[in-house]
Every structure is written in C-alpha cells, then in structure tokens.
Design goal:
Structural class: alpha+beta
Number of domains: 2
CATH topology of the largest domain: GMP Synthetase, Chain A, domain 3
Number of helices: 4
Helix content: 25-40%
Largest sheet: 3 strands, antiparallel
Strand order of the largest sheet: 1-2-3
CATH superfamily of the largest domain: K homology (KH) domain
Radius of gyration: 19 Å
Distance between the termini: 49 Å
Strand content: 15-25%
Oligomer: single chain
CATH architecture of the largest domain: 2-Layer Sandwich
CATH class of the largest domain: Alpha Beta
Length: about 160
C-alpha cells in the first residue's frame, strides 16, 4: 500500500499583510559546466539537499545530443506542478475534487525580436474532465493569481545577480 503524501498547509484564507516578501521555503541548485565547461551543454545540476542531482544536456534542436534534461524541461515541470497545486487548492475550496486535473506546460525557447537574444514562450493547458468550463475558467483565473510561476512569467520576478566573494 502506498502512503498518500501530506498536502501542504497553504491556504488563500491565511492572508499576509506585511510590506515585504516573506520567504516560506528556500532552495539552492548549483550548476557546474561539465566536460564542455557549459552548464547547458554538459552541466550538472545538484540541489543543496542532494535530492535533485542530474545531468544537463542540450536538446537536439539546439545542436545537442538530446540525451539529458534541459532547462526548458525543468521550467515546464516546475510551472506545471506549481499551477496544478494552486488549481487543486482553489478546487478544494470550491468543494470540487481535483483528482482528474492535469496540467501541461509547453515552454518554447527562441529568439527575442527586440534584442536578438533569447526568450521563452509558455503555454499552459489544463485538462479537467467533467467540470463545467465556466467554473473551471473561474478557478483557473484564481489559480493564476496564486501561482508564483505564472506570476513570474507574467510580471517578472525580483532577481539579484552577484559574484560570490
């Protein structure tokens, strides 16, 4: 028999009224460059707790061998999981069962026409059979306002880049 994981103790009822960001969880992942000295092409990604430990490789479409995980896959997985969690939360609050919900995130890597650099484009598709589309749309909107990944994709996220001393 498989143990059911405990749901997070997060709720939209526990409003935060502070004036600054209040971290609830923090994680660190370190990427090294590997044999090509290029994190994206031959890197290694490892979390501080060692739970995430994987090789990074370029997808075949970008000239790699396609035999490893790439940053776009990791971002798509994080976004889909986070949005699924937010949608499950608001579904439960609306007395709906979230078991049938699945979330598919598609992340496209391409050229940014504004500066010639690179840009990501994200599409999220929710499958929720047997739920009224109007009800689903309202709950998806609520989930979108809760999910930090969709907030980041829409508004950007505060980022600090510094050289370690």
């Amino acid at each position: 028999m498989t143990d059911v994981p405990r749901l997070p103790d997060l709720s939209t009822d526990k409003d935060f009224d502070g004036e600054t960001f209040a971290p609830i969880y923090t994680t660190t992942v370190t990427v090294s460059g590997g044999t090509a000295s290029h994190g994206r092409a031959s890197g290694k990604a490892r979390s501080g707790d060692g739970v995430l430990d994987l090789d990074l490789r370029m997808p075949a479409e970008l000239g790699g061998d396609g035999r490893g995980t790439n940053p776009e896959q990791l971002f798509a997985a994080g976004l889909a999981a986070c949005f699924h969690g937010a949608l499950s939360l608001v579904a439960r609050q609306a007395a709906l069962a979230p078991a049938a919900i699945s979330v598919e995130a598609t992340v496209a890597f391409g050229r940014d026409p504004d500066d010639g650099g690179y840009l990501l484009h994200v599409d999220v598709e929710v499958k929720w059979p047997d739920v009224d589309p109007a009800v689903a749309a309202s709950l998806m909107e609520q989930a979108d306002s809760l999910c930090p990944y969709t907030k980041m994709a829409l508004r950007g996220t505060p980022t600090t880049i510094r050289l370690a001393s």
